[in-house]
Amino acid sequence: MLEIKNLSRTFFPGTVNERKALRNINLTLGNGEFVTVIGSNGAGKSTVLNMVAGKLQPDAGTVAIDGKNVTKLADFRRAKYIGRVFQDPMAGTAPTMSIEENMALAYARGRFRGLGAGVGAKRRELFVEELKSLELGLENRLKTKVGLLSGGQRQALSLLMATFSEPKILLLDEHTAALDPQRAALVSRLTNQIVERHQLTTLMVTHNMEQALQLGTRLIMMHDGQIILDLDSEQKQQMTVKDLLGEFEKIKGAQLDDRTMLQ
Fold it and tell me: How does it sit in the membrane (predicted)?
């Protein structure tokens, strides 16, 4: 469970560049809830994720995971609660290490154990079974350097590894944005499968409104540091991209198109 209460953050306060990134944000995700987040550039989407991950500290407000206040907890100390996949496929893996070695590091994360002499037979068997679920043939390439994989393969691997530590919260930061449409569709499908299989509480930022409607059990729209729309599963299923744009215009009285949302 994730609870965000009265979260605020201002960048460059007291200067000509002052910008209120978050304005008293309140958001609760129940266990297993999958929330997609959309909004124009500068709406505060990634700032929220960085606050949850501990990369940024709020000026006011709190972040709690499973009832534990983690607001003041350093990012490396709350990492055991959080899995995260970034936009850049290069960010979640070590390119000079093999698939097996990357998976071993991810598996050891938060378990307070080293790699020992190497990956044992049982661990390797586990990795093979996990890779099979991706249906990309990577289970036959354990010794392949990750740097030789395609962007889609790397992002699928990053997604898989982010769940190894059985995180309380999974953060997805535009994790398909750098991929071509075919690979983005693949990673989206895998995202849905993995989140459902592990019943992960998930917060996913995306600029793709169709993706935001297709994935998840709930959708929120942000603008100017605020949540301006919150749709449950039933409401979301009845929505189209055109409907979302219309809701934005109705709430904010401003013109918005899908190109603006993709910036």
Answer: Peripheral membrane protein
Give mean pLDDT, residues 233-262: 75
Q: Quick one: pLDDT at residue 117? A: 43
Residue 57 has pLDDT above 80, yes or no: yes
**What's the confidence (pLDDT) of residue 102?**
93
Average pLDDT, the chain: 89
Do 235 and 181 meet the contact criterion of CB atoms below 8 Å apart?
Answer: no
* Burial of 179: CB neighbours in 10 Å, binned 0-12, 13-18, 19+: buried
Average confidence (pLDDT) over 208-232 = 94
- 3-state SS string for the chain: CEEEEEEEEEECCCCCCCEEEEEEEEEEECCCCEEEEEECCCCCHHHHHHHHHCCCCCCEEEEEECCEECCCCCHHHHHHHEEEECCCCCCCCCCCCEHHHHHHHHHHCCCCCCCCCCCCHHHHHHHHHHHHCCCCCHHHCCCCEHHHCCHHHHHHHHHHHHCCCCCCEEEEECCCCCCCHHHHHHHHHHHHHHHHHHCCEEEEECCCHHHHHHCCCEEEEEECCEEEEEECHHHHHCCCHHHHHHHHHHHHCCCCCHHHHCC
pTM of the model: 0.89
Confidence tier at 118 by pLDDT (50, 70, 90):
low
Q: What is the pLDDT of residue 122?
A: 86
Which tokens sit at 161? 């590894």
* Domains in the chain with CATH codes: 2-93+151-261 (3.40.50.300)
